[in-house]
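Appendix B: a complete holo record

For completeness, this appendix reproduces one full record from the ligand-bound portion of the collection. The bound molecule is 2-acetamido-2-deoxy-beta-D-glucopyranose. The inputs are the chain sequence and the ligand SMILES; the output is the full three-dimensional arrangement of the complex, encoded as structure tokens. No fields have been trimmed.
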Amino acid sequence: MGKLKYLAVAASLVVDFTSAQDVDYAQFVNPFIGSEGAIRGYAYGGGDVFVGGAVPFGMVKLGLDTYEEPVNQSALNGGWTPQGFVTGVSLMHVSGTGGGPKYGFPAQMPLTSIDGDVNLLDNRTYWQKREGDDLASVGYFRTKFESGITVELSASRHAGMHHYTYPAASGKHVLVDFSHYLPHPTRSWDSQFYTGGEIELQPNSGTYTGYTSIAGGWCIGAPVTVYVCGEFDTPPDTGKAFKGKNTFPVSRHCRSFNNATTPSPTFTGNSARSGPLNDRVGAVFSWNNVTEVKSRVGISFMSVDKACAYKDSELPSWSINDTMHAARDEWNRDVFSKIRVDTSEKANKTRLALLYSSLYFMHLIPSERIGENPLWESDEPYFDDIYTMWDLFRNQVSLWHLIQPSYYESMLRALIDMFRHEGWLPDGRSGNYNGLVQGGSNADNVLADAYVKGLRGNINWTDGYAAVKKDAEVLPYFDENPVDPQGSLKEGRSALDDWIPLGYVSADRNSRAVSKSVEYSLNDFAVSQIAACEAPEDRDLYLQRSAGWQLSWDPSATARNFSGFVMPRFADGTFHKTYNITNCGDCNWSDESYEGTAFEYSFVIPHDVARVIDLMGGPGHFESRLDYVFQPNTSGVDLGVNGLGITTINNVANEPDFQTPYLYNYLNKQWKSVERSRQLANDFYFNTSNGIPGNSDAGALNCWLVWQMLGLYPIVTTPVYLLESPWFSDINITVNRDKTLRIRADGLDDDGGKQGYYVQSVKINGQEWNKNWFEHEDAGGIMTEGGEILFTLGAEQQVWESGDVPPSPGHIVLDVGNGM
Ligand SMILES: *[C@@H]1O[C@H](CO)[C@@H](O)[C@H](O)[C@H]1NC(C)=O
Ligand SMILES: *[C@@H]1O[C@H](CO)[C@@H](O)[C@H](O)[C@H]1NC(C)=O
Ligand SMILES: *[C@@H]1O[C@H](CO)[C@@H](O)[C@H](O)[C@H]1NC(C)=O
Ligand SMILES: *[C@@H]1O[C@H](CO)[C@@H](O)[C@H](O)[C@H]1NC(C)=O
Ligand SMILES: *[C@@H]1O[C@H](CO)[C@@H](O)[C@H](O)[C@H]1NC(C)=O
Ligand SMILES: *[C@@H]1O[C@H](CO)[C@@H](O)[C@H](O)[C@H]1NC(C)=O
Ligand SMILES: *[C@@H]1O[C@H](CO)[C@@H](O)[C@H](O)[C@H]1NC(C)=O
Ligand SMILES: *[C@@H]1O[C@H](CO)[C@@H](O)[C@H](O)[C@H]1NC(C)=O
Ligand SMILES: *[C@@H]1O[C@H](CO)[C@@H](O)[C@H](O)[C@H]1NC(C)=O
Ligand SMILES: *[C@@H]1O[C@H](CO)[C@@H](O)[C@H](O)[C@H]1NC(C)=O
Ligand SMILES: *[C@@H]1O[C@H](CO)[C@@H](O)[C@H](O)[C@H]1NC(C)=O
Ligand SMILES: *[C@@H]1O[C@H](CO)[C@@H](O)[C@H](O)[C@H]1NC(C)=O
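The structure of the chain with 2-acetamido-2-deoxy-beta-D-glucopyranose bound, as generated:
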């Protein structure tokens, strides 16, 4: 399509990092990876990523909002689409999410005309196609509208910098539309909707202030109110506030005038407020004698004053170049330089792009909102856009643990503070509102992962344990989400009414029985891991419950010549015998298994792989089943956007299967883990706009690739890391704030398809290492104090490991009978 281009170096923005320590890793980032899906030119099935200006975990992510048709080939979640019409430029976005879009507000839109056919209340009358390629680099975005306006964007933590360049002969206007948000073009139940706002123009100045409130979206959240403080570098010649009837088509919530002509705005002088009917409000500014208009806009969840203060303090100059440089410096300092590889001429630039872009995408959300929590007063930090734990717990939190210790500790404290003040840990959260729980209460896994790796800091683990114990014990109230008539999707574990008395989640009383049984098992293992020190008397109870998945194991269930699977089981103890093991149907909220088949979920027991191996018939059977799930054309399910182009049962594009390719380590056949996982990475990850195999899921897919490139894989809720095979011969990672973990790969020889990447031997801190795994504190604290992991690689597929297989710390043997 040629609609996008990332700039390594753009003419006016030459980055000059001369000193050797200050490598500009940002130059390797391709911010478009995941912006497009399998159908070129459309977002559908792609990463749903945000494209625009942002700092790491920034509250502001400034970028275009678009409307792309046909809507069945689009996805508006990140705002940007390859060729959608631009409807506005807004400050808040999420990245990589599915479901109903969130945010896309507050927005501005530069226009060359506001007369004639243009109706400020109808975006279709002014929306813009783009010309040429959009440009994006870390902290910077540029596009050109068909109208001739060039838009450049950059951002600080709580403010956005816009720079509009107009054609000399055209009109120069900026529309501020407080009723703008990212809509859901194909359904209303989880679409956002506008619930009111207020705008005020300061006469004879370039400043406007106010707020907008938008509700709904993915988690069906309560209204989010954002205060806005915008300023233009040149005071406009005219500025007028307006209001108009709220006729958005999401008629479930608003008065609808489907058949009426779209209303026109009423101009109201220097201010406009929504009033009782949630009228739309906005303003339009016009200039006569300038060709460039710059605008800085601060936002806050607390007050207009705070929004103005952010604008002034974070964007001290009107220069987009300065703003971009500040953002880029922060990314280099706080993110990219945490993982340092050779960037010299001889380095493989594709790999640099994959590594640093992946790091970029896994630091866009959650949004750090310290001092920006409107819901309660607390000295604890605050984060939002945890979207979702279901995605993040698999391995992303474990990387943050290593390379972002400050942010990560803050996130955990924020989670526990949410429990303190709202009663529950979130499994997902956006717009200051919990939801949606896809399976278990996976914040439990996150807390346990940190806990077993010794993270204490200022985390109150007494409350942390109380929080996970509540998840394990208290049925959340029913939130009446329209997509699940059986239990809460907001927080907690909606099927505890089965889980506690039966030990498994039944398929007749609850939705998603298979995947919930599997997830609750790991959740309870996680609880037992924290209990081990915080409440030793509870440990055994939760450890025992963590074997619940075995009660859902039907040894006589057979598919593709393999026997024994986690299956839907009814409350009376019988199994759903005719359940299709390779096809979960829509694999949706109301189905028996969520986003994965019984075939896949049968492997997803990281705390007790040993028992899985037994139940599958021993190591030989386990291995052939594992081999089978990677064979092409075996998938029996339409994976939809969660796996376009994938034909194997194993779906590397979706979270449940992230760890499965690495399970050969549990057979001491590590070379096969290396082979499978590398092949998946090579087949599905590219430095192209459609270069990830599905929604990036807040960076979860990207982070899977980072671990792959480092040659490690963490087993979440335990201190174990599997050893795999690095993609670089020398990697320095800053862990635990200021220690260096060096990973070297002697003999790596995989240029141009060569296969010199199989492990021949490993040394950790000089010690010969005969196991294909190690623990966080092994070898004198390799992950806390740093040190060196030395891989010797070669082309030979070797069983080099002779030590114990990775542990199964939740090992329990329940009698599974022979299937009823
Ligand atoms: C979208 O709809 C169009 C027209 O109905 C159809 O041709 C196209 O195949 C659909 N695309 C997808 C991805 O389903
Ligand atoms: C644009 O207008 C359409 C049609 O009224 C509406 O569905 C949509 O929500 C509006 N806003 C955006 C940002 O697309
Ligand atoms: C009113 O809406 C209905 C249903 O969308 C449509 O069939 C009809 O043609 C519309 N009438 C007018 C006058 O636009
Ligand atoms: C625009 O420029 C013209 C010519 O320099 C000048 O006469 C006019 O006053 C200016 N208008 C404004 C609003 O500054
Ligand atoms: C861009 O900003 C950087 C850092 O603020 C500065 O060193 C450089 O001179 C600026 N370049 C231009 C063209 O303004
Ligand atoms: C890693 O650190 C070591 C020790 O400081 C240094 O010699 C080596 O060049 C570094 N490697 C990379 C890729 O930065
Ligand atoms: C943890 O928080 C609770 C209140 O939520 C408090 O009573 C307790 O003292 C705190 N513990 C520590 C170690 O600060
Ligand atoms: C999942 O279910 C929801 C609610 O019924 C529906 O809106 C959505 O389209 C479904 N998604 C898929 C992929 O089937
Ligand atoms: C199952 O085993 C039979 C007999 O060994 C063989 O013919 C058949 O191809 C196998 N089916 C699959 C799906 O592997
Ligand atoms: C998988 O199926 C596709 C489409 O039917 C076919 O082209 C391809 O050769 C098959 N691959 C294998 C390994 O059987
Ligand atoms: C299960 O679904 C697959 C794929 O849709 C289908 O080929 C198979 O016949 C189904 N199996 C059963 C037992 O219904
Ligand atoms: C560079 O890395 C990419 C991605 O791993 C790989 O496909 C390509 O073959 C490598 N190029 C060379 C020259 O090794």
